Amino acid sequence: MTSRRHQRRAALPGASYTRPSSLDPTGLLVTVFGESGGVEGTFDFTPLPGSIELRRAFAAALDRKSGPAATWRSGETCRNGYWALRAFLEYLVGRDDAPSTAAQISPGMWAAWRLSLPHNHTARNRQALLRTVLPLIPGLPAETVTAIDQRIAKGPHTTEAAYSYEQFEQIRSKAAAMFNTALVRIRRNREHLRRWYSSEYAEGSTDWVLGEALDAILRTGDVPRYGGHADVVHRYTRVLGGRGADKTWARLFLTSAEAFALVVLLVASEGWNRSVVHRMRVPDHDPAVGDEEFDIHLVEICKRRRPVRLRYTSNNLVDTGPDSPGRLMRQAIEATELARQSLELLGRSTDRLLVSRRSGTPEDPFCEGIPAQSVISRWSVQAGLSAPDETPLRVSLRRVRRTVQVLIRKQPAQNTEQTHESVYVLRDPSARAEAQETIAKGLSDALDHAHAVVKMRIVLGDNANELIELSDDPDLARAIQRGEMDTATTACTDFFDSPFSDEPGTPCTASFLWCLRCENAVITRRHLPRLVYLHRGLNELRGTVDQAVWDQDWHQHFHRLHQLLAEHTTTAEQAAALPTISNIDRILIDRLLNRRLDG
């Protein structure tokens, strides 16, 4: 199969090309260029407090730390680093002995700032970021660099747990209902716009004016308004049915809440990280080779924190019908396609999968990637989700991903087996609770299996010769004591009523090895030598026959005998019993192992 990935060709820059500077002439504005040539973000130190020399030093450190060839390559990491530098700078300026240059920052200032921080994850994260970027500040004293380089104590492990099955299904159901409603709305209006482009409506008719309004929304991102204000042009208000988002631009674009609902569905389906979904590109698409019933979406997964050779992987999402991962991806592309078209018409082409429309009439109406945290918080409330204690259930993408890994798929998702077990499974209360249920069920099943498999009566105590269980039939008990009812392995209480015989009343023809699981069998102390000898013979036989023969003819009998001896005798008792075996018993067991006693 072929895809767009193999058709892309990057053009080399001209001979006169010079790499743009990431630091502006003032030394206060840092531009972080991405690995693909775009801009990850710009960070302005101009409005921050402090002397201009100190701010330039901090900006220079961020500039050295970020960029396509540096350690910090993503906009999110650079943004966190910028806010950490800003917080430390604000602390320094607020001191009575505020430094004006980097050379005046002492180890005591760093230590005092660390002590002023709260004991939470955000504070530890900022310390970790500054520990790597502050040593890049020009002119910082060596002793201060040494103090900054000291290890940061690890915080407590996350207490975040997976959702329960019921909560997970509740969240996914709400997300599916919201996204599917939006998809139907966009499909309906896109079809109306197609018919308008095909001139299927009479000019001036209601449908024609509606198509004109949809065309304006596609070209500009919004319906025409008077002077750029909130009031929609009256001729469009009438056909649109109102001025709200659901009546205007939301006819063609996902709202922020609907985009987050789509994110929830993607994470719940594939267990992707938030950052992976946030930066995800529109996947390549190929019909399955030789099969017209399936479509395959080739999704590129990028995890920037990994080494370059491990950073990119891919997932093949196959569209096999409703509720399949490939169908969800196809619907995601369809629901966001018009937003990408609108951005292209506005001169901002993008291949990002997630594109939605912000509320109101902002200067930049489109959001690429996952919406802001405020949208996520409102979505949880609007969805009407509730926890078992009737409190609102907050939706967290990290918890959704954890639920997929721990309870749904129970396997790694873009991480190693070790990380899956140590970080996700072992630390999660839901996994531990489920494991306890699994262990208990396993023990119960093992006990039931033992009862079903080992049905013989085992009498290996000191008073074994009394055979109390057969006290209602003293003649049979005495016959067993005298050895008159012995088989090659055990004693038998009824040769003519075997569970292995096809017809009752006929002699048993089963192998003597099956006595080990027969309800008619009885084992007494005097049978122990022959059983120990049989166990040793089977163990030796295991190393001489083919594995397939062992598995088919001998394995289950050996396992059953091994379990019987381990549970009812000690190693010392077995060692003492073996030398006492009679010649007759030894001959019988040897013949049994040589298949000379088979019926």
How would you describe the overall organization of this protein?
This protein is mainly α and 599 residues long. The protein contains 20 helices and ten strands. It has helices at 52-65, 75-94, 107-116, 121-133, 142-148, 165-197, 206-220, 234-240, 256-270, 274-279, 325-345, 373-382, 397-408, 417-425, 429-453, 474-482, 528-542, 547-568, 571-577, 583-593; strands at residues 29-33, 39-44, 284-287, 295-302, 312-319, 355-357, 366-368, 457-458, 491-492, 521-523. Strands 3-4-5 form a three-stranded antiparallel beta sheet. Strands 8-10-9 form a three-stranded mixed beta sheet, with no helix packed on it. Helix 7 (206-220) packs across helix 11 (325-345) and helix 17 packs antiparallel against helix 18 (547-568).
Any key phrases for this structure?
mainly alpha; elongated
Major sheet attributes? 3 strands, antiparallel
Class inferred from helices and paired strands: mainly alpha
Helix-residue proportion = 40-55%
What is the approximate shape?
elongated
Distance between the termini: 61 Å
Strand content: 5-15%
Low-confidence stretches: 1-7, 451-456, 461-469
Structure annotation, total helices? 20
Largest sheet: spatial strand order = 3-4-5
Overall radius of gyration: 38 Å
Secondary-structure element pattern, one letter each: EEHHHHHHHHHHEEEHEEHHHHEHEEHHHH
Tell me, rounded to a whole number, the average pLDDT.
Answer: 80
Number of strands: 10
